Amino acid sequence: MNGEVETTFLARLNENLGIAHQVCRTYFHRDAAQREELFQEILYQLWKSYPQFKGESKFSTWMYKVSLNTAITHIRRSRRTKQGAELAEAAETASGAPHPSEEISKAEKVQRLHEAIAGLSDVDKAIILLHLEEQSYEEISSITGLSRTNVSVRLVRIKRALKERLQGMA
């Protein structure tokens, strides 16, 4: 990249850095080391692929697409080596659930939502993340490669599944 292109990229990146952080938190809400590793990988992929960005979509839309694709690829690689650790974490989470009669703080509610989202497929995580970030159905469709109708149907199903999981945690 030449100096001007590099300066433009860095300015746009800094304006939208929250996107990369949100993707990392969505996929690795409990593992700070994995979040940091994924964040670095996302930044690298953004840098590497910026020359192919043609401006046909908003920079933020392109950044979501690269970030989510990087996260999904990263997860697939790490799953091959960590399936046993996931089972141990699930058992720990289940045994540490508070009694339903206890009052739940906002932080606990957020944590439970992250846990419920963690149980979704990678694509469904991406869709709900984008929805929670108030992206339009058209933008979600563009980022995920799904049709607008498919996004709409999936969101209804995702919301229903999250509601059921959250009620099951209570």
Looking at CATH, which topology of the largest domain would you report? Rna Polymerase Sigma Factor, Chain: A
What low-confidence regions span 5 or more consecutive residues with pLDDT below 50? 83-88, 90-103
Cα end-to-end separation: 52 Å
H/E element order:
HHHHHHHH
Looking at the structure, what is the overall shape?
globular
- Number of extended strands: 0
Number of helices: 8
Task: Assign the CATH class of the largest domain.
Answer: Mainly Alpha
Query: In the CATH hierarchy, what is the architecture of the largest domain at level 2?
Result: Orthogonal Bundle
SSE-based structural type: mainly alpha
Largest sheet: none
Quote the average pLDDT.
83
CATH-assigned homologous superfamily of the largest domain = RNA polymerase sigma factor, region 2, helix turn helix motif
Number of domains: 2
